[in-house]
UniProtKB/TrEMBL annotation, chain A:
Residues 33-75 are annotated as: Disordered. This is Nuclear pore complex protein Nup85. It is found in: Nucleus, Nuclear pore complex. Component of the nuclear pore complex (NPC). GO terms for molecular function: structural constituent of nuclear pore. It comes from Piprites chloris (Wing-barred manakin). InterPro entries: Nucleoporin_Nup85. Belongs to the nucleoporin Nup85 family. Keywords: Membrane, mRNA transport, Nuclear pore complex, Nucleus, Protein transport, Translocation, Transport. One of its GO terms (cellular component) is nuclear pore outer ring.
From TrEMBL, chain B:
SMART domains: WD40. At the nuclear pore: component of the Y-shaped Nup107-160 subcomplex of the nuclear pore complex (NPC). The Nup107-160 subcomplex includes NUP160, NUP133, NUP107, NUP98, NUP85, NUP43, NUP37, SEH1 and SEC13. At the COPII coat complex: interacts with SEC31A and SEC31B. Interacts with SEC16A. Interacts with SEC16B. Component of the GATOR2 subcomplex, composed of MIOS, SEC13, SEH1L, WDR24 and WDR59. The GATOR2 complex interacts with CASTOR1 and CASTOR2; the interaction is negatively regulated by arginine. It comes from the Eukaryota. It comes from Piprites chloris (Wing-barred manakin). GO terms for biological process: COPII-coated vesicle budding; mRNA transport; positive regulation of TOR signaling; protein exit from endoplasmic reticulum; protein import into nucleus. GO terms for molecular function: structural molecule activity. Keywords: Lysosome, mRNA transport, Nuclear pore complex, Nucleus, Protein transport, Repeat, Translocation, Transport, WD repeat. The keyword Transport applies. PROSITE patterns: WD_REPEATS_2, WD_REPEATS_REGION. It is found in: Lysosome membrane; Nucleus, Nuclear pore complex. The keyword Magnesium does not apply. PANTHER family: NUCLEAR PORE COMPLEX PROTEIN SEC13 / SEH1 FAMILY MEMBER (PTHR11024), PROTEIN SEC13 HOMOLOG (PTHR11024:SF2). Functions as a component of the nuclear pore complex (NPC) and the COPII coat. At the endoplasmic reticulum, SEC13 is involved in the biogenesis of COPII-coated vesicles. Required for the exit of adipsin (CFD/ADN), an adipocyte-secreted protein from the endoplasmic reticulum. As a component of the GATOR2 complex, functions as an activator of the amino acid-sensing branch of the mTORC1 signaling pathway. The GATOR2 complex indirectly activates mTORC1 through the inhibition of the GATOR1 subcomplex. GATOR2 probably acts as an E3 ubiquitin-protein ligase toward GATOR1. In the presence of abundant amino acids, the GATOR2 complex mediates ubiquitination of the NPRL2 core component of the GATOR1 complex, leading to GATOR1 inactivation. In the absence of amino acids, GATOR2 is inhibited, activating the GATOR1 complex. This is Protein SEC13 homolog.
């Protein structure tokens, strides 16, 4: 089946397509460009390079002649998205809570064996179902409280979908997870039918709440409903009301009531074996049959039809089609009254014939029917496949398959990648979550539990999470760091550093580049810091620079930045000799870039002009050498020599150095042993 | 189920040739025969025009977003023989580099994996492929492969970055030894694979299967398997899937995806490489997925079977 893009021009246009991270882009275009037309050998004039002036006109004519039509076409680009379900607010609970159940299941003890493990898995299944039901309730509330008919329609549709999901899941729980054996199987199926066939509920309520139920026109319908659903006590209770109003039928009533009371039912406990039950049931069945054949109920068609149902008369049961509403209700009723000890593997035969008889060629089975049929036939893979087709998102099949896999029920159906069905579905589901701005975090956990491709899928998807805020970036980072995704860590840090730099937040940029261990970037940012310092005379983000610690070693420039700041600190604390030593080391050890030497030497000036002598003779010689190196190196630079400020500075430095040298020689010469 | 969540009215005055989302799906770049490149902010269903970039003197054929770690950078190529690299600085988009080294229309541009640095491959109708590498400080270094394809080169696509040998974490700061490769498709009906060796680009493989011009090539993202996969489509209506099983990249074998009734113009892979989109002359975009038995199936409805997405089309209103 094809999907029409609404709004797209139906005339013969082509579609250009591009993948976005979550959406896909579709736009109308016409392929076939100048230099690449459909003809095998384009004309010479087109393939040869057009000259500048020609190219302009050729461009226009090129596109026209190629397309053969003059119309420029639509200028619209469509953003198309799959899997809209994750954006439905009311389903949020479904995704969040099922995530919790999923995680619990993954972590649950596999060591538990046999019965306790099964009980555990059944509980998990029940938990999933209660989440579905809770969602249904919310959705129903939403449908009821909205005034917008379109929304109401949407909500109602969602409710039916959720209801169908719960119906299927429940059946799968009975047949696969619990794997109910003959006996309890029927009881479970009865519960299932009672829970899910709700069309008759309002009628039942109406009759029960009326003043005189037995006089209600739908009275017998309700009795029939109870009998069809195996609700014997309720049926008997209602019947008793009828007989008090109608004493003539007392005899018939007593017999019928007795039969209904004695009906053997499977039990959940181990109070009787299957064989015992079968025997009892056979006996009872024959008794019912006798009463029927004797014409005991002949004068009361209602009671007679009930007795016919009790003996499992298919036609009698089928007559009550409208009260059963579905073929699977019919199936269970049939089983109840003809073969209550049905074994799981025998279900398929009854199921197929029930559906055929019920639909009777009038209507054809719907997708839901096919899914249920596949379940009765114990074709698990078929169930999953059909559900994938029918449902609009992967939630259901992913979680159900995972559960079935934990029940060790799925053979490894090797798909192309070598991964199994479970992983395949989980990957699809989790990938879908990633297009949502907050649900993506759930997706991470799902990928974690996909042993073959989870990690690489996570790597590919997590790169596409927009890092709008620092908070989000940190979240993504933490996830990547926890999983040793080093490439992604580096990538995120680099992106954040770049962003910070663009917004002139140097400190932030620096700390991100340190985290990214990106030496080149750290150098770049350090240069910016230094440039800022030269321009403004002070440092920004002092805290960060002061506390660089070992990360200072990431890049030479960064080291210099850190050390230079240290110099300023020492100077501020009046620890001049230390400051002086550091300053000198910065130049002699070539930690400082040449471009910065002038600034450093200028920084030395105040130290040179202190009353106290700070630089030793040797140090002064070093400084002088540095200065000469610097000025010699800049001999070609005209600017340097012509710049008055610079030349003045150099002169001042030379003077200061000379003076210092003089003082220090005297001092060192005078003082003993210095 | 597929639904249109946003319709961006680009106001291009002529045919749109390419539209690309950025990495995060927050921005949309479009280019057109009207010679302009436009950038829109499409967050939350909106469409705000951020930039209307003029600079080309002919129809602009393709746009490509660079990896966000390099900032907001977009490349465009045009019939006017130019490749322009645009960059956003302080909220404004400007031309940051213009390459005019081709003698004919530049048909395709593709950024290399971010691990290699900022490198752009460009394929031109003059038969050459040029590689522009950013070396810093606004400077770009150019390497040209002349006569890569006779008559012309129509498409270029980079291979995902894979470090040969083990995947042990390299000590920080040290660049791993990547083997850079990309694929190109041309008017000589060939798909070629190029490999960088000793800073030179050499033709490593010649893939022959098409009987007419190759219009597009797309190298699939890597999901960690040792196989490499390339999709190619051609004027001959065929789409081939090429796979190479060994790490040395020596034996490529083609598998025919489908023979379409018209020219196939465009192929592209989804992020996790599990779906291939094919845009063809028969007014359709079809989506393909590889099934259990290695056969490629056109997936027909959303979530149908083991992976289903709808085929998107327009004009065929009555099909159910």
């Amino acid at each position: 089946p094809t999907q029409v893009v609404p709004g797209a021009d139906p005339s013969a246009r082509q579609l250009c397509f591009a993948w976005g991270p979550a959406e896909v882009l579709v736009c109308e275009t016409r392929f076939g460009r100048a230099g690449g037309s459909r003809s095998r050998s384009p004309s010479r004039s087109q393939s040869r390079s057009p000259s500048r002036s020609q190219s302009r006109s050729r461009a226009l004519t090129g596109s026209v002649t190629d397309t053969g039509e003059g119309a420029p076409g639509s200028s619209r680009v469509f953003l198309v998205r799959r899997d809209q379900d994750i954006y439905i607010q009311t389903l949020r609970k479904l995704f969040n809570e099922s995530h919790g159940i999923f995680m619990g299941l993954q972590r649950s003890e596999d060591e538990l064996a046999g019965k306790s493990r099964k009980a555990q898995l059944v509980q998990v299944s029940k938990n999933y179902r209660s989440v579905i039901r809770a969602c249904m309730e919310d959705m129903h509330q939403a449908a009821v409280s909205t005034r917008d008919p379109a929304l109401q329609g949407q909500y109602s549709t969602q409710v039916s979908i959720l209801s169908a999901m719960e119906l299927i899941w429940n059946l799968c729980e009975i047949l696969f997870v619990e794997a109910a054996a003959a006996g309890p199987l029927l009881l479970r199926l009865l519960d299932w039918v009672r829970l899910h066939v709700c069309d008759v509920d309002s009628m039942v309520r109406e009759v029960l709440s009326s003043e005189n139920p037995s006089k209600h026109k739908l009275f017998w319908n309700v009795v029939d409903v109870f009998v069809l659903q195996g609700r014997m006590d309720e049926a008997r209770h209602l019947l008793s009301k009828e007989v008090t109003a109608n004493p003539t039928s007392m005899n018939m009533y007593k017999i019928l009531d007795d039969l209904m009371k004695k009906m053997p039912m499977p039990s959940l406990g181990n109070t009787q074996t299957l064989t015992e039950l079968e025997l009892k049931w056979q006996h009872w069945h024959e008794e019912c049959q006798r009463f029927l054949q004797d014409g005991t109920f002949a004068s009361n068609p209602h009671m007679e039809s009930i007795c016919k149902i009790l003996v499992g008369d298919e036609d009698a049961i089928l007559e009550k089609k409208e009260l059963m509403t579905t073929w699977y209700h019919f199936l269970v009723t049939r089983l109840l009254y003809s073969h209550p000890t049905v074994k799981p593997m025998e279900l398929r035969f009854y199921a197929q014939s029930s559906m055929d008889l019920f639909l009777g060629g009038e209507s054809s089975p719907e997708p839901l029917d096919m899914i249920l049929m596949a379940a009765f036939e114990f074709e698990m893979h078929q169930v999953i496949k059909e559900c994938s087709i029918v449902l609009s998102n992967w939630w259901f099949v992913a979680h159900l398959t995972d559960l079935l896999d934990h029940c060790k029920l799925l053979q490894s159906h090797n798909l192309y990648f070598g991964s199994n069905m479970r992983e395949f579905l989980l990957l699809e589901y989790a990938s879908g979550l990633f297009s949502h701005h907050s649900l993506w975090q759930l997706g991470v956990d799902y990928f974690d539990h996909c042993p073959e491709f989870g990690r690489v899928y996570l790597e590919l998807h997590i790169e596409r999470i927009p890092l709008n805020t620092e908070q989000k970036a940190l979240k993504v980072l933490r996830i990547c760091e926890q999983r040793q995704m080093h490439e992604q860590v580096r990538s995120v840090c680099k992106i954040m550093a770049m962003k910070a730099l663009r917004n002139n937040r140097l400190g932030s940029a620096l700390s991100w580049s340190i985290r990214a261990k990106d030496a080149a970037f750290a150098t770049l940012i350090s240069d910016r810091f230094l440039k800022d310092y030269c321009e403004r005379g002070c440092f920004s983000d002092l805290d960060l620079i002061d506390n660089l610690g070992p990360s200072m070693l990431l890049s030479d420039r960064l080291t210099f930045l850190g050390k230079y700041r240290e110099f300023h600190r020492l100077y501020g604390e009046k620890r001049f000799p230390e400051a002086a030593r550091l300053l000198l080391t910065l130049m002699t050890a070539h930690i400082a870039p040449c471009s910065f030497w002038m600034t450093l030497l200028t920084d030395a000036l105040p130290l040179l002009e202190q009353k106290e002598i700070i630089f030793s003779a040797e140090q002064t010689y070093e400084l002088m050498r540095c200065l000469e190196d610097l000025t010699a190196g800049n001999a070609d630079k005209q600017k340097f020599q012509e710049d008055d400020v610079e030349t003045t500075k150099v002169e001042m430095l030379r003077l200061a150095l000379a003076r210092n040298l003089a003082r220090v020689i005297v001092k060192e010469g005078t003082v003993e042993g210095s | 189920q597929v639904s249109v969540i946003n319709t961006v009215d680009t106001s291009h005055e002529d045919m749109i040739h390419d539209a690309q989302m950025d990495y995060y799906g927050t921005r949309l770049a479009t280019c057109s025969s009207d010679r302009s490149v436009k950038i829109f902010d499409v967050r939350n269903g909106g469409q705000i025009l951020i930039a209307d970039l003029r600079g080309h003197e002919g129809p602009v054929w393709q746009v490509a977003w660079a990896h966000p770690m390099y900032g907001n950078i977009l490349a465009s190529c045009s019939y006017d023989r130019k490749v322009i690299i645009w960059k956003e600085d302080n909220g404004t988009w400007e031309k940051t580099y213009e390459y005019t080294g081709h003698d004919s229309s530049v048909n395709s541009v593709c950024w290399a994996p971010h691990d290699y640095g900022l490198i752009l491959a460009c394929g031109s109708s003059d038969g050459a492929i040029s590689l522009l590498s950013y070396t810093g400080d606004g400077q770009w270094e150019v390497k040209k492969i002349s006569n890569a394809h006779t008559i012309g080169c129509n498409a270029v696509s980079w291979a995902p970055a894979v470090v040969p040998g083990s995947l042990i974490e390299q000590p920080s700061g040290q660049k791993p030894n990547y083997v850079k490769r990309f694929a190109s498709g041309g008017c000589d009906n060939l798909v070629k694979i190029w490999k960088e060796e000793d800073s030179q680009w050499k033709e490593e493989q010649k893939l022959e299967a098409h009987s007419d011009w190759v219009r597009d090539v797309a190298w699939a993202p890597s999901i960690g398997l040792p196989t490499s996969t390339i999709a190619s489509c051609s004027q001959d209506g065929r789409v081939f899937i090429w796979t190479c099983d060994d790490a040395s990249g020596n034996s490529w074998s083609p598998k025919l995806l489908h023979k379409f009734s018209d020219v196939v113009w465009h192929v592209s892979w989804s992020i996790t490489a599990n779906i291939l989109a094919v845009s063809g002359g028969d007014n359709k975009v079809t989506l393909w997925k590889e099934s259990v038995d290695g056969l490629w199936a056109c997936i027909s409805d959303v979530n149908k079977g083991q992976g289903g997405v709808s085929a998107v089309t327009e004009g065929q209103q009555n099909e159910q």
